[in-house]
Design goal:
The protein is an alpha/beta fold. Helices cover 35% and strands 9% of the residues. It is built from 11 helices and 7 strands. The strands form 2 sheets. It has a 5-stranded parallel β-sheet with strand order 5-4-6-1-7, with helices on both faces. The N terminus is likely disordered.
Length: 351
């Protein structure tokens, strides 16, 4: 399950041009996929230890690598995977024992094995994977999705990026809108928090009632409209919309992120840990019309395992295997599976 330049033009249908600062509107054509949840394993999960077995590594174990295989730094001999692969489903998809629960859904998974990373550094590869360009500022794939399909909710951001414990490297550039209106950029949420005031900060005022806030926003909108009339700057319109969205989120976000509203057996299925919680949050957000939810593994680059991969990759995969399987089962049960695109991947694999 990988993501490169993503054939979103065909899969998500032609984009509906919506040049306003808001993220409303509807696509010209009915899209095959109406929503996306993207598990981003920042740091670079090893493809040869997860979904892309290389038996030749075992045959050439310990032997020096050919000179035609260029690497960023000096490396040792060929290293076989410490994990066991098996075929699953009618398709016979080979999956390692890191993802045993996910493997039960093998016939619902398409694995892309044709991608190549041209740059062995994380920062440019993150930009290439998320924004399609490693050197210049371009809109992220989530921003393009929201721009092309519009939003199905007026009370929540159409694009949400969750990352436990803080930001990945490159920070908010990973979910930037670039030259698109600011309303299309991702909204950051730290799912390590459980209180709504911490999950999404600054949506509630401790000093003003909703009626007072509404009056303040109306006055601000009138003044901004007068200012914008002479300038036609979309950035101002996007900022106005962000204030309005924050006002509406005071009640909508509290309900959407409240996992206590879910039955205990559902919460148990996803797992009582941060990755289980953020995956369940993602499903609740998709149900409420959010177009694109990106689930980062954690702050920094946790999958950047240069040593002891047998221990570290097993730990990291173990945090995701259950939640991914639970999400696929849940989407099927709710009739959402056929029009939801679920992506798993990172900025590159491992050599």
């Amino acid at each position: 399950m990988g993501i490169g330049a993503l054939g979103l033009a065909g899969l998500l249908a032609d984009e509906a041009v919506n040049a306003s600062g808001g993220a409303g509107g509807a696509p010209h054509f009915t899209p095959r996929a109406r929503r996306v949840v993207h598990f981003f394993c920042n740091g670079g999960p090893s493809h040869v230890d997860t979904f892309d077995p290389k038996p030749a590594l075992a045959r050439h174990a310990g032997q020096p690598l050919p000179v035609t295989l260029t690497t960023e730094r000096k490396t040792g001999g060929a290293l076989p995977s410490p994990f066991t692969f098996a075929r699953h489903g009618e398709s016979g998809l080979e999956v390692s024992d890191l993802f045993t629960r996910t493997a039960a859904h093998a016939d619902d998974i398409a694995v892309i094995r044709s991608m190549v990373a041209e740059v062995p550094n994380h920062e440019p590869s993150l930009m290439l994977m998320n924004c399609g360009n490693s050197a210049q500022a371009r809109p992220s794939v989530g921003a393009w999705t929201l721009y092309g399909l519009g939003s199905e909710t007026a009370d929540l951001p159409g694009f949400i990026a969750m990352c436990p414990g803080g930001m990945p490297i490159k920070d908010a550039e990973n979910w930037q809108a670039a030259f698109l209106p600011g309303a299309y950029q991702g909204t950051f949420v730290d799912p390590q928090h459980t209180a709504i005031e911490k999950l999404i900060e600054n949506t509630r005022s401790r000093h003003a009632s909703q009626a007072t806030q509404r009056a303040q926003l109306d006055l601000l909108a009138a003044l901004d409209a007068e200012h914008a009339a002479a300038r036609l700057d979309p950035r101002l319109e996007a900022r106005i919309e962000s204030f309005e969205l924050a006002f509406r989120m005071q009640s909508a976000a509290a309900e959407a992120f409240d996992l206590a509203r879910e039955p205990q057996w559902i919460r148990d299925r996803y797992g009582d840990h941060v990755h289980g919680r953020q995956t369940l949050m993602a499903r609740r957000l998709l149900e409420r019309g959010v177009r694109y939810v990106q689930l980062w593994h954690g702050a920094g680059q946790p999958w950047d395992n240069h040593s002891d991969i047998a221990k570290n990759h097993r730990t990291l995969a173990g945090q995701l295997d259950g939640p991914i399987a639970a999400l696929l089962e849940d989407l099927k049960a709710r009739g959402m599976f056929d029009d939801t695109l679920v992506i798993w991947g990172g900025e590159f694999g491992r050599t």
